[in-house]
Specification:
Strand content: under 5%
Number of domains: 1
Oligomer: single chain
Strand order of the largest sheet: 1-2
Largest sheet: 2 strands, antiparallel
Helix content: 55-70%
Number of helices: 10
């Protein structure tokens, strides 16, 4: 099917909106490329900001795509495939390079662990379950990389964490898909927005906010993990 095919009877406004949503998703790759260039220039704060912008885009594009019904409007274009391509860049490749550039690993070779583990994870047909969970650690390497850098975690601890989480990709535990949560979706999205702002503030104003703000922001990942395990286990129970 032609990738530019449009559903019959669709208004130009809906077509424009659908392509606009896909363009927003694709723009995440541009910010990923900018982050890589910033890392190459040894400008980690700028790279971190680009990573946060890419994360913000990924946090909203799925909901916008569903609201605009892009799959119905543009049946020949696979938005999920586009999203996976951009996500692999921004959630795996960019943070793996960031980990090396930030000195968070004992040796650059350890960056192969998340890259290879996530290549497997992204390729699994059940990487996203029918009940809207991620199966296995969902490759949040951008979050891991940013925290290891912001908290100046020792490379031995950073390497251990990266190896353990790489193994967690293969462990079939359920993790929330934030934009498709069955409960507390608005609350979680609101708190996630505040979390992103707090991390951006910590990158932009490290002297004013200090590591206290970064430590405080860890409340959101803790909340996410606790809710994932609670809802994931509940969803897996037989009535």
């Amino acid at each position: 099917m032609n990738g530019f095919a449009v559903a019959e009877g669709t208004s130009p406004a809906r077509v424009t909106l659908a392509w606009g949503v896909h363009l927003l998703t694709a723009s995440g790759a541009l910010f990923g490329a900018l982050a890589l260039l910033a890392i190459a220039s040894d400008d980690l704060p700028r790279a971190a900001l680009f990573m946060l912008v890419a994360l913000a885009i990924d946090s909203i594009d799925g909901s916008l795509a569903r609201a605009a019904r892009v799959r119905e409007v543009l049946p020949g274009f696979d938005g999920r495939r586009l999203d996976d391509i951009v996500d692999y860049l921004n959630y795996v490749i960019v943070p793996a390079v960031f980990l090396v550039g930030a000195g968070s690993l004992l040796a650059s070779g350890f960056a192969a662990f998340p890259i290879l583990a996530s290549a497997y994870g992204f390729s699994q047909t059940d990487a996203k379950t029918d009940d809207d969970f991620f199966l296995g650690f969902p490759s949040y390497w951008n979050v891991v990389a940013l925290y290891l850098w912001l908290l100046a975690v020792d490379a031995r601890v950073g390497t251990t964490l990266v190896v353990v989480l790489s193994a967690a990709v293969f462990v079939p535990l359920k993790y929330l898909y934030p934009s498709k949560m069955p409960v507390l979706r608005r609350t979680t999205n609101a708190v996630a927005a505040l979390w992103l702002l707090l991390l951006a503030g910590a990158v932009l104003q490290p002297a004013r906010l200090g590591t206290a703000a970064v430590w405080a922001s860890l409340a959101f990942p803790a909340y996410y993990l606790a809710l994932s395990f609670w809802l994931g286990n509940r969803a897996g129970r037989t009535p």
